[in-house]
Amino acid sequence: MSDDEALEHIGRLIDDSCDAAFERGAKRALYLLDELTKRPLPEETAVLAEYFRANAWATRSQIANIRQSWSWESVELQEEMLALTRAASHPGFMRLDNGRRCQILTNRANLLNGVGRSIDAIAGWDEALRIDPHFAMALGNRGAGLRYYAGMVDDNRERAILALHAYDSLCKAVAPDAMHESPNFLPVVAQFKETAEALGRAVNVDAVRAMQNLDQGKQGRSKVERAYRQWCLDKRLFLCSLNDLGSYLAAATDELMLPGIRERFDERPGDYSPPPIIGFFSQMKQEYVSARYMLFEGMSSTRVHFSDRGVMLTNTLDYPLYSLASEKVRTAFRIAYSLLDKIAFLIDRYWKLGKVPAHISFKNVWMVEKKQRLLPQFEESNNWSLRGLYWLSKELFDDQLKQTTSADARELHAIRNALEHTYLRVSMGWAKPFMIGPSSTSSFGIAIGSDELESKAIRVMQIARSALFYVSFAIRHEERKKLRDDSEDMVGSMPLYWFEDRWKRYDPN
């Protein structure tokens, strides 16, 4: 068979196997794809082969009922994620027609949402809708995803606005101008319509639409502050759930908080202060927003700072970047990445895992000590956001997943280690292709261009933001569970108040 004939044959085999719940057919399709990809395929065909591979693994997952299971580990889900990510990041991806690109991005976002990475899923659906604003599956799944996301948010106003946007997205998915890639779209339309109607009954759509005022918010007092706030909105870096809807001024605030924490009276004998986890989360938030501003300053600086004057350095003839501004970018990267290990420490303490603090990291907090096996507490946990954190760690540390992620997310761990322990050689972005060989990693550290470092620093900030949301939502899930399970217990309360902005002024006296 020609390449096109082979793909068509495999595609039919996958579809028929899915319809008939015939696992052997899906396995056969995967074997044929392995054989096909041994050929020197054109880029466009290679991308489609990965897309078909993802569909074959999705068929196996559906037959095994994996998606309805709370099992955190799944070969089927991981292989489907790998194939979709390879397709989306393949050089031939842009050669595909708009519809196929939307399918790949939407399917990957659906999978991210399924494993608990709701924030990353919303960004994925939005990416598909930038290609085709009428793509029905992206619109409908985005609406369903926003509906679940709204359910995790405590603030009544934000929850109502998210639910409104979920409703609007679902309505667009069933509108006459919605674009459906499958001829058998009526059952899906009926499902989206049913979900939209349920939301319409639960939310006063007109009232929420009138009060949302997304264009009203804190613009900033100076030109620099306004530019900073707009940059944060555009990169989706504010700790506000409304920022996941877009660059709305109403989202220019960092309102994310932990829920109320319940402790037994004898849990910390003799200590009557608030739970330490609350102060720890506030410290992490402060580190995040400070790193975010350092990154903005480092990326936007155009002057030589007075602290750099008279500092004698060697010109190594590779257009190196040495300055306070570049160090701010490096520092922002390090702080944002370090937040992941601190979140792992928070997970250990809140879920009482009993790990040795010095050995805790975002990579291993999930595992039995010195073994690649999930802790029993997590194996079948129905805490959706906690599972999302686990799958986020897989993208950073699983050798296969991290190599197939988008270019700006690759090598984040290696860069962090170079920043902390070895040598990260940064050259001016325009000079890198001329000064750095094809391999950016050598026995003497890592070489990188300034523009690449900046894009990766932004990606680390986005990952840290998602992780802060996920851990807050995960704790909220556990606290709600405590409330249900211990509804008859006597409960005392300790009110806590906001830390006012005027107290943030440093006064050594």
Automatic annotation (TrEMBL):
It comes from the Bacteria. It holds the Pfam family HEPN_LA2681. This is LA2681-like HEPN domain-containing protein. It comes from Acetobacter aceti NBRC 14818. Residues 273-478 form the LA2681-like HEPN domain.
